[in-house]
TrEMBL record:
Cross-referenced Gene3D superfamilies: 2-enoyl-CoA Hydratase, Chain A, domain 1
PROSITE patterns noted in UniProt: ENOYL_COA_HYDRATASE
Origin species: Tychaedon coryphoeus (Karoo scrub-robin)
UniProt similarity note: Belongs to the enoyl-CoA hydratase/isomerase family.
Protein name: Peroxisomal bifunctional enzyme
Length: 164
């Protein structure tokens, strides 16, 4: 939603400018990272702001380490947010993917560029063109996530952020 995008942008800019902040952790709410954009918003007239691509680029260019704590699902724009992060920790039951293609859309926030850089072209093409969701264990093998945890993902992400 526009509110989430604005909160991400404001929070990142504030954290980057605050010398007391050493790292940033991005998580979802209620055990889910993000299922991506609400497709109902695609048919509404374009409003000023609210584009995911610039937010993901802002995450990627943050001077401080940014860690994604992935619980539940990171799909579509949610996975693209995670791809912009410097590190990704996933709960063992998490699933990730770019399912937009199943409704005739391509990932629009540079996921088609970031994913191949991270996991290689063959694996990325499979994910992008099929829209399949992969489990955390496969994401770890591919290099999509840096670590899998059975415990509290947020606490693990904070530990990693403090370590780096």
């Amino acid at each position: 939603s526009l509110a989430v995008l604005q909160a991400l942008e404001d929070g990142l800019k504030k954290a980057d400018a605050d010398p007391s902040v050493k790292a940033v952790m991005i998580c979802g709410e209620n055990g889910k990272f993000s299922a991506g954009a609400d497709i109902r918003g695609f048919s509404s007239p374009k409003r000023h702001g609210g584009a995911l691509g610039p937010i993901v680029s802002l995450i990627e260019s943050c001077e401080k380490p940014v860690v994604a704590a992935i619980e539940g699902v990171a799909l579509g724009g949610g996975l693209e947010v995670a791809l912009g992060c410097h590190y990704r920790i996933a709960h063992a039951k998490a699933r990730m993917g770019l399912p937009e293609v199943t409704i005739g859309l391509l990932p629009g926030a540079e996921g088609t560029q970031r994913l191949p850089r991270l996991i290689g072209v063959p694996a990325a093409l499979d994910m992008i063109t099929t829209g399949k969701h992969i489990p955390a264990t496969e994401a770890l093998k591919l290099g999509l996530v840096d670590e899998i945890v059975e415990e509290n993902t947020i606490e693990a992400a904070i530990r990693l952020a403090n370590k780096v």
